[in-house]
Design a protein that fits this description.
single chain, 504 residues, mainly alpha, Fumarase C, Chain B, domain 1, Fumarase C, Chain A, domain 2, three-stranded antiparallel sheet, two-stranded parallel ribbon, elongated
Amino acid sequence: MTVVVDGSPITVDDVVAVALGSATAVAGTDLDQRMEPARALVERVVDDNETVYGITTGFGALANTRIRPDQASEMQYDLLRSHAAGVGPYVEPEIVRAMLLCRARTLAQGYSGVRPEIVRFLLEMLDRDIIPAVPSQGSVGASGDLAPFAHLALPIIGEGEILVDGVAVPSGPVLEEAGIEPLELLPKEGLSLLNGTEGMLAHGCLAIHRAAQLVDATDSAAALSVEALMGSSRPFEYRIQALRPHPGQAISAARIHALLQGSKIDASHHDDFAHKVQDAYSLRCAPQVHGAVRDTIEHARSVFEIELGSVVDNPIVFAADGDVVSGGNFHGQPLAFVLDFVAIAVTELGSISERRVDRLLDPHRSSGLTPFLATNPGVSSGYMITQYTAAAIVAENRVLSHPASVESIPTSGMQEDHVSMGWGAARKLEMVLTNTARVIAVELMCAAQGIEQRPMDPAPGTRRVHDTVRSVCAPLVEDRPPGPDIMRIAALIETGAFDPEEED
């Protein structure tokens, strides 16, 4: 698969594919033609010594400070150096790859006034897997992700650091060994390398990819739990969902229903109303909750894909009009809102999963399963403490679900007096996703153990889910530390092992 970077819109799936290395990104053949008019206008502005923000003036609170034409290029270098103020652990390589792609696409649109060489340099780093070391703390998500992008851009001038085997090393020797010559920046090019929302956007694209995998895994876990708890498949029938046609609900209900088809466990009590009149909400309402998460993910996807076709630089160079205009398209609020929303939704995914875990382990509510799924209850504690782990993680996720997007703190001497905090929203969403995979892993582990205590055969679909769990987690015969098993199943979830295509 090849993603062509020519300024046209790209998709979330394009970003994910390039970030994960299953697609390459190449410059479009008409890149020079598209970008040259805006570059020519920037050069004219400098030659005529016009007053234009970021080209012949300072930045932020220094916007009213005039810059001489002979200082316009020097200012771009100082901009990258001064804005590289990030701290903390480095951003994951796949996120940085996504940032390189998204930044290259934005500049390629021809509204930034930079040379095509800048775009090609970013794409060459991507092609050679040369990953700038980008610290994870320092962006407030308003003039774009300034600090992260400064670290991303410094290697273009032979400065900053590159990650080599996870260690940050000076970029100069790495570029020299790769035969890549640093570029000399011209007026506005440093500014255009910084302004924009592509940092939080890169996080968001990969986050909703991960979130979609989690929903699929949670549908699988719910189906397995329904069988283990002698629950009913009837709440997942199509005719119920048709009366409340939320798209995500229909998808999750159909998946759970399909996984339960042919279950001898379900058949053994299907029409036995003395067995159980109705199941608890965590079982019966799984499509309504899981489906709402699916719909939230799709809403986020629609917002991100608008952004993947947008101009988010500042100032914007309207070459056809001969005009350079300072605006606010770099403000990350649209992304910050949905990043927070996805974190809330995924937290609820873990919350309902934890409730099913508690039911699987409680001898008073598990329809005959051994206490805590132990083989020798009393002597053995079985999976008792795994519910503690799930509960602790869900509690942590609830704290992380507090919205970052309402936490504006003014910056740059009150010039930037309202910021989005979208980068922070994206970073905490990553933690929520990782945490939730572990909660779902607990449910899958417990439900797999539970159906093994039933004398009847499970459905072919849930049998496949069970067998996938068993590929990394042996049955619990006697007590052992469950933590490693939880982590192995969580890693399996993150590979997409419970995607419908994989189960088929």
